[in-house]
């Protein structure tokens, strides 16, 4: 499939506050007048391409740093990964089965916002600071100014706090986490991402899904290298690192404050392995999904039979399931199927063997059609 600048994919979505409220909060609580002139600012460049290690590193810095007069810019990138927001439904945001078939990771982060696709062509920024120094607008302006000055590209921040290229294409989306005393704002930057893979995995394969979870908003995207081929990951790292230290220090770039870090080093970041393991747990990635339902009706010709499935999934488990046939048949064990699936994780490796075994036990063509319908939902 040929990808053009007009391609649309899922990127960072809905903000949890209206723009007016956001501006009021920024003005009231996070005014720049409270910022010290000379901060002990550092840039950390992660040497890992593992999403779980990088999310763990971000969380470790957030939890263990004293941000009274310190700020940190963490720069990182990952192997192919779909990253959903804290309050999202992975089955609603992406094709979960296709993700794993293509060797793509799936992760849930601790901030809100929508779903993004990461790969080695995407640069991630995490701006970590005290809560009173949190300033999303300043961070985004910093990114835009560096891109304009270094590469003369036409970029701007829109009213949704996305960065747009040529007034049209989204190249960056934003999310944040604000705690009691600390905060972070992180965002993406599309440099040379595989747009085709992004489009392949960032759509749901489940019609009939009903959920109250935060949904992403569809946006047209474009890579920076499509308009400026000289841009590279390394050149971006150097430009942003240098400017961040100059801007938040004494007006000069102290290269000692640009530090390469290995998030797998337990001796450097005590407890980080435990954070990483928690982020990889099924109970976090899938079990934190808000309760949702799937209702789907299949029609079979020429018998004109309708088969309706109504399922409720809570914390990643099938808590209720109702199967209904428009034409009753003693040969189709509807209640047996419901009983066998109820209580299982909503996961193809858990439901697949059960459906397959029931199919062997009841092998007539009508029943096999029922099991084929069920297989489409897992």
TL;DR of this structure?
By secondary structure, the protein is of the alpha+beta class.
Outline the structure in words.
It is a single chain. The strands form five sheets. A six-stranded mixed beta sheet has the order 11-12-7-3-2-15, with helices on both faces. A four-stranded antiparallel beta sheet has the order 13-16-17-18. It has twelve helices and 18 strands. Helix content is 32%, strand content 27%. Mean pLDDT is 86; it is low at 1-37. With 378 residues, it is α+β, with helices and mostly antiparallel strands. It has helices at 19-29, 51-64, 90-93, 96-101, 136-151, 195-201, 233-248, 272-280, 282-285, 334-341, 348-361, 365-375, and strands at residues 8-11, 40-46, 70-76, 81-84, 105-108, 116-118, 122-130, 155-157, 163-165, 169-172, 174-178, 182-190, 209-211, 217-220, 258-261, 292-300, 305-314, 317-325.
């Amino acid at each position: 499939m040929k990808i053009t600048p007009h391609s649309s994919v899922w990127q960072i979505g809905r903000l949890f506050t209206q723009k007016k409220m956001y501006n009021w909060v920024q003005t009231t609580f996070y005014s720049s007048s409270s910022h010290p002139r000379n901060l002990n600012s550092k840039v950390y460049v992660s040497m890992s391409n593992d999403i779980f290690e990088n999310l763990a590193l971000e969380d470790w810095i957030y939890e263990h740093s004293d941000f009274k007069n310190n700020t940190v810019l963490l720069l990182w990138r990952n192997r192919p990964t779909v990253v959903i927001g804290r309050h999202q439904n992975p089955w609603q945001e992406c094709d979960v089965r296709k993700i794993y078939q293509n060797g793509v990771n799936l992760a849930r982060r601790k901030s809100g916002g929508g779903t993004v696709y990461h790969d080695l062509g995407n640069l991630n920024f995490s701006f970590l600071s005290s809560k009173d120094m949190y300033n999303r607008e300043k961070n985004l302006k910093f990114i835009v100014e560096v891109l304009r000055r270094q590469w003369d590209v036409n970029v701007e921040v829109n009213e949704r706090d996305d960065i747009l290229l040529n007034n049209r294409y989204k190249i960056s989306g934003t999310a944040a986490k604000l705690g009691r005393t600390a905060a972070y704002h992180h965002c993406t930057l599309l440099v040379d991402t595989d747009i085709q893979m992004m489009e392949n995995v960032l759509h749901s394969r489940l019609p009939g899904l009903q959920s109250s979870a935060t949904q992403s908003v569809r946006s047209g995207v474009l890579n920076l290298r499509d308009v400026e081929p000289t841009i590279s990951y390394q050149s971006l790292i150097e430009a942003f690192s240098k400017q961040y230290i100059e801007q938040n220090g004494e007006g000069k770039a102290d290269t000692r404050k640009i530090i390469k870090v290995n998030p797998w080093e337990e001796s450097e970041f005590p407890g980080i392995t435990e954070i990483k393991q928690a982020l990889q747990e099924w109970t976090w990635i899938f079990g934190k999904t808000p309760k949702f339902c799937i209702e789907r009706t299949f029609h079979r010709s020429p018998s004109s039979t309708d088969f309706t499935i109504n399922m409720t999934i809570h914390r990643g488990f099938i808590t209720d399931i109702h199967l209904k046939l428009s034409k009753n048949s003693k040969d189709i064990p509807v209640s047996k199927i419901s009983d066998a699936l109820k209580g299982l994780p909503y996961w193809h490796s858990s439901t697949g063997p059960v459906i397959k075994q029931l199919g062997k036990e009841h092998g007539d063509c009508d029943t096999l059609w029922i099991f084929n319908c069920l297989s489409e939902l897992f």
